Amino acid sequence: MNKSAIIIGTGLGGLSTALRLSSKGYKVILLEKHSTPGGRMNIIEMDCFRFDMGPSFMSMTYEFDELFNAVGIKNPVEFEELEPLYQVYFEGKEKPRRIFKDLQKLEDEFKDVEPDLAAKADAYLKRAAQFWHDTQDKVVKSNFDSMIKYLLKFSTVP
Ligand SMILES: Cc1cc2nc3c(=O)[nH]c(=O)nc-3n(C[C@H](O)[C@H](O)[C@H](O)COP(=O)(O)OP(=O)(O)OC[C@H]3O[C@@H](n4cnc5c(N)ncnc54)[C@H](O)[C@@H]3O)c2cc1C
Questions:
Q1: Are 70 and 85 in contact (CB under 8 A)?
Q2: Is residue 11 lining ligand 1, measured as CB closer than 6 Å?
Q3: Among candidates 53, 4, 71, 6, which has minimal Cα distance to 32?
Q4: Spatial distance between the Cα atoms of 21 and 80, rounded to a whole number of angstroms
Q5: Is 14 in the pocket of ligand 1 (CB under 6 A)?
Q6: Does the Cβ of 16 fall within 6 Å of ligand 1?
Q7: What is the CA(15)–ligand 1 centre distance, in A?
Q8: Which ligand 1 atom is the nearest neighbour of the CA of 57?
Q9: Does 56 sit in the ligand 1 pocket, CB within 6 Å?
Q10: Phi, psi (5° rounding) for residue 7?
Q11: Which of 35, 72, 116, 148 is the most exposed place for a label (fewest CB within 10 A)?
């Protein structure tokens, strides 16, 4: 029997689900209410300016490798590491604030605002990483069909 699926929405979620299902032999139909696919991963062009509507940088690039490995094709997406990661312009200030991956550079950038930023950020990132790994294994990579099951599993995260 031919398996088929209809996916509503062509954001990253719909497109990656379509790839996974079609690699398993499903005939997939994607429905999209807008004229272009991509969902929030799109751009608006106006008066010679381009605005990102959603993702402007990808922090979990390994998810792309996982997806393309799972469907058996070479990852066609090329990533370029940014440093600074991004710049924020505040009204009335001429210089932007630059967000660096390198914590010493980040400390230098914010030395007028937060002393010892590199050490503080390092401690914070270690705690956040531990929490993320605990949550990823138990919650993020699981499916839940009820709020109760979700909350029960979440309560096991330290
Ligand atoms: C301002 C902003 C900044 C972000 N920055 C980042 C970032 O830097 N890095 C990062 O990884 N992520 C970022 N995100 C998150 C990322 O954009 C989203 O997680 C991701 O694009 C969501 O994909 P999705 O497929 O779940 O939903 P969507 O992209 O919202 O796709 C849903 C699709 O379904 C369509 N649709 C809805 N209802 C119907 C219907 N009834 N019939 C037909 N079609 C329908 C919509 O038109 C849309 O195309 C950002 C999001 C925003 C808003």
A1: no
A2: yes
A3: 6
A4: 29
A5: yes
A6: no
A7: 11
A8: 8
A9: yes
A10: -115, 125
A11: 35
Q: What is the CATH number of domain 1-80?
A: 3.50.50.60
Q: What is the pTM of this model?
A: 0.81
Q: Which two tokens stand for residue 66?
A: 């996982």
Three-state DSSP class for 5? strand
Question: By C-alpha distance, which of 121, 115, 86 is closest to 103?
Answer: 121
Alpha helices in 24-156 (DSSP H): 62-71, 103-109, 117-135, 147-154
Q: Which atom of ligand 1 is nearest to the CA of 34?
A: 47
pLDDT in tens, 95-126: 999 999 999 999 999 999 999 999 999 999 99
CB of 33 within 6 A of ligand 1: the answer is: yes
